[in-house]
Amino acid sequence: MKIVRFTYGAQDKWGVLNEKNEKKINIINGNIFANYNNHNSYDNYNNYEVSDEYVSLDNVQLLAPCIPSKGVCIGLNYYDHAREMNLKLPAEPLMFLKPSSSLNHPGGIIEYPAISQNLHYEAEMAIVIKKQARHVSVENAYDYILGYTCANDVTARDLQQKDGQWTRGKSFDTFMPLGPYIETDIDPHNINITLYVNNVACQSSNTGNLIFKVPELLVFVTQVMTLYPGDVILTGTPAGVGPMQAGDTVAVELEGIGRLENTVSKADKRSCQPLL
Q1: Domain-embedded: residue 269
Q2: CB–CB of 205/211 below 8 Å?
Q3: Which pLDDT belongs to residue 36?
Q4: Beta bridge partners of 11
């Protein structure tokens, strides 16, 4: 199912896209994330219900479908991107963080920082965590995953290269767009991933090209840090990364999940070269 978070009236709610009519959202009652109780264990998952009450998708404002305490990002995790950059394959995942303050919503504005002159897009699949995760094993990794959503790892490339580490270049406000939906029932290793700038395809690949697969990433990250309900792991970007200009419309599309579209603030539109 596709889980969506939205504002309706004065309230933020979660819902599920109606399977028969995706213009309708059935409202969720309860908590889509697992609760950690006083007995140091988790309450039974599925402590929510999908109601018969619905609202029209056209009458709501979509929000990022989760509220992460952090975004854990993986660098150089597509074979085609490594070939494109002429880089040796990493022996283990390359990990960095985006702060919660970088969260952005479907339809939100990506702000081009005044101190950067080279802003890049990076289309990614994000793993959404459903319950607290620490020292996860490969065998039970999927037990901790609610689903998957679209992400854009927006990067001030000039600052990343200038600093020699990635915190500043990856962490500006608005630099972690997520959404529009969390798909809970999909094979994460066979999803077509495409990024469009002004409706021209600039990245095109498949998550089958991931170097480190979803269970491996969960094991690697949780041996270092605890993941909390709603946290996300951005799994890396394929070949074709490139610049965005103020005024551009940028869309990340994951087959079977949805299309995450944002615009870059300021002026002067551009388009990239079409893929061959």
Answers
A1: no
A2: no
A3: 57
A4: 8
